Structures are given as C-alpha cells and as structure tokens.
Amino acid sequence: MNRINGDSFWSGILAAYSEIALKSDRVRVKFVSKLKSNIIEAFKSRGLHTRVRHRWSRILIDCNNDIDLSCRIASRIFGLKYIAPYRYVDLEELESFMKTYSPRLLKGVESFAIRVRRTGTHSFTSKDLERRVGSIVKASSNLRVDLDNPDRTIYIEVHDNECYIYTNRIEAPGGLPLGTSSRVVSLVSGGIDSPVATWLIMKRGCPVTMLFAHSPVGGDESDLKRFLAVARILREWHIGEEIRAYSYIHSKALKEICKVADSYTCVLCRRMMYRVACRVAEIEGAKAIVTGENLAQVASQTLDNLYVVDEASNLPVLRPLIGLEKEDSVNIARMIGTYEASITAVSSGCRSIKGCWARPRKPTTRAILDRVREMESMIDVDKLVDEAISSLKDLSNLL
Ligand code: ATP
Ligand code: MG
C-alpha cells in the first residue's frame, strides 16, 4: 500500500463496479443501492461506521482513518471490480498538488504514466490533461515517462470540478452484489470444489444456504469440522445477507442404497442429496441447487450420470465449475481462502482419507435412468428423505 503522511493523506476509497454498469438504468439503480448497503453492512460487521456515496459511475467510501483495514473490508464486496485509496482535490488545485505531492506518490519507482478519465464539460480533453500533468510531474520528480510499461500509474478521475487521484488499484471480486438474485441451496462437502462453486454462485448475487450431508461413520466428526471451517471462511464473503448452514444425517440412506445399488451407489447417493436439498430449498425459499460437480473430472461425473442425477431434482441444478479445470478451482480456492481448510485430512464420514466407505469398486460411468428407478423401488425413498429432513440441524449460529 502506498502510504503518504500516514492514513490521513487519503480522502477515502474509490470503488469501480463491474457488470452493474451494463444494466439498464432501472436495474442499475436497484443494484447500486444494494451494493451500497452491502458495503455499509461490511463495515458495520467490523464495528465501523462508514458513509458511502454514488457519484457518476463510482462508489466513494469514507475510510475511517485505517485505510488498510478499510481496503481489506471493501475488497471482499461482490459487485466491485477494483478499489483504490484516493486523494481528493479541486480541479483548480490539481497542478499545485501534483507539483508538491507527485515525488511522494512516485517514491521508489523509475518511470510513470498519467491516466485521466474525465466526465463533465471542460475546455480540455483527457489527453490534454494527461500531457499537462505529465510534464509537471516529470519536472518535479525527474522520472521517466513510460506509457507502455510504467512502474506506477497515477490515475486522475475528473468529474466536473472534482479530481480523484490514486495510484493503487486493488482487485475486488467483481460479479453482482450479493442479494440481487434469489437464494440457492448449495451442497457443500468441505472438499476443494463445492466451496469454490458456492463462492462463484455468491458472486452472481445469490445468497446461500449450505447443506452438508453428514455421515457420522468413523466417530471423530472431522468431516463436519472441516465443513464448518470452510463454511466460516465463506461467511466472510457473504456480506449483506444472512448465510445459513444445515447438516442432515445421510448415512442411514446411504446404507440402504448400498444394499441395492452396487455400481450405481454414487448415483443413488447423489440423487438422495438432491432430494434433501430440494426439500431444504422449499423451507428456505431457494430457487436452485448448487454443486461442485464438474464434467468428466472424476469418473462418476459423466454427462450420462449428471443427466440421471438431475432427474431427482425438481429445481435447476447449477454447477458453476462445469467448464473449469481442476487447476482453476484450486487457484480460486487459494484466492478465496478455503484451500487450506479443504485439504485437511478427515478421518470420518464419507470423505475420509480412505475414501468413501460406500464407494463401489467400479462406479458406473453410464447410468441408465430405468435401472436407477428399479433400484430405488427396492428402498423407501420418500421415507428416507423424510427421515433425513427430520435429522436436519441448523448450524448457522456456529458460523
Ligand atoms: P468436492 O471437492 O466439493 O468434495 P468432488 O470433486 O470431490 O467435490 P464428489 O465427491 O463427486 O466431487 O461430489 C460432487 C458434489 O456433491 C460436491 O461438489 C458437493 O456439491 C456434493 N457433495 C458431495 N459430498 C457431499 C457432502 N457430504 N455434503 C454435501 N454435499 C456433498
Ligand atoms: Mg470431494
């Protein structure tokens, strides 16, 4: 972070939004309003009061004197593309400000560029101002101008008579403000993929209810602990809406499935999870189910199998990872902070070190719906779903 004269140098944080800019006027007003209230909520949850303004296509956030903390908070808000600590000056003061402060803004670098973005009516163009400020900065700092590959860029956003100056753009997650889409139920195992899928759907504006299929086999509950650890990290991103989490007992149904399904065990298992998730969605008013499934990444996730498991859900099944490579998921997991928790070894449940205890030696990759129906007719699916629902445990207050 570029610190000058301590935090008080900065006037606040300028934030740019991403996709919201492409929306119609009516929708944009709604989304910006939700974005602002999510930002205020994020600061409030850290015990900080802040003021947020929408000016032309920027959001301006007061920064509470602790610019680093403020940036950390703001950089987690869905809907923001980047944030930057800015210094405000009136247009008449811009040149004298640059004479005085540009050597400090450019401390430690050898080359620079000036980039101007301008709105309002002026007698000069953005390019004119870039040249003018560039020559002042060059004279006062003795540094080289490099427009192609500068060590540092000084951005100046001019809006009528107002100038917002910044050098450090910090990436934010982008996407749409949380809460601008409907709630979803996300099946979260605690492994690498489903937390990433959950984060990606949050990024599309959906508040999330997480559902963990708990198989307390093996005793130490380390699978449940891993789920909770991951869920707590996701909560840090889930700003402006209530995040919820449930577990249910899955092992009873799984034992029944094992008796009839053999190589179809994984398919029937997943169908059971979807059914429970749909019932939870009813309770929660959610409109879709989310999973961390991919296409052809593991043997069970073939298109034939996905077709058959989808049939058990009366809601759309969203799979945000469908087009990603494993490496992409791992990179996102690292970036959002769930990776370390996800790779901790668990010794209980169906995600144990030895792998799922119910997993057949050779799981089918080409499930056929009629075969599935035949197998399911041998167990009491409705009763198993009812029992799963009565075992639901609300874990939201543990997050
Ligand atoms: P993950 O990394 O999320 O565990 P995976 O790549 O290991 O996924 P599978 O084990 O086949 O793949 O699971 C596919 C999806 O099913 C998961 O991404 C998750 O959405 C859901 N799922 C699997 N196990 C559980 C569980 N115990 N509780 C809730 N959802 C689960
Ligand atoms: Mg897994």
Quickly list its features:
399 residues; alpha/beta; VC0802-like; Rossmann fold; 2 domains; nine-stranded mixed beta sheet; six-stranded mixed beta sheet; 13 helices; elongated; disordered N terminus; binds adenosine-5'-triphosphate; binds magnesium ion
Write the layout of secondary structure elements.
Blueprint: E1 12-17, H1 25-44, E2 52-55, E3 58-61, H2 67-74, E4 80-90, H3 94-105, E5 111-119, H4 126-141, E6 144-145, E7 152-159, E8 162-166, E9 170-171, E10 184-187, H5 193-203, E11 208-214, H6 222-237, E12 244-249, H7 251-261, H8 265-284, E13 289-290, H9 303-310, E14 317-318, H10 326-336, H11 339-342, H12 369-376, H13 381-390, E15 393-394
Parallel strand pairs: 5-6, 5-7, 10-11, 10-13, 11-12, 13-14
Antiparallel strand pairs: 1-3, 1-4, 2-3, 4-8, 4-9, 7-8, 12-15
Helix pairs in contact: 3-4, 5-6, 5-10, 7-8, 8-9, 8-13
Low-confidence parts: 1-7
CATH homologous superfamily title of the largest domain? HUPs
User: Roughly what fraction of the amino acids lie in strands?
Assistant: 15-25%
Average of per-residue pLDDT values? 93
CATH fold title of the largest domain: Rossmann fold
**H/I helix tally:** 13
Computed CA radius of gyration, to the nearest angstrom: 26 Å
Number of strands: 15
At the first level of CATH, what is the class of the largest domain?
Alpha Beta
CATH architecture descriptor of the largest domain: 3-Layer(aba) Sandwich
What string, H for helix and E for strand, traces the elements in order?
A: EHEEHEHEHEEEEEHEHEHHEHEHHHHE
Bound molecules: adenosine-5'-triphosphate, magnesium ion
Helix/strand class: alpha/beta
The percent range for helix content is 25-40%
Number of domains: 2
Shape field: elongated
Largest sheet: 9 strands, mixed
Instruction: Quote the distance from N terminus to C terminus.
Output: 31 Å
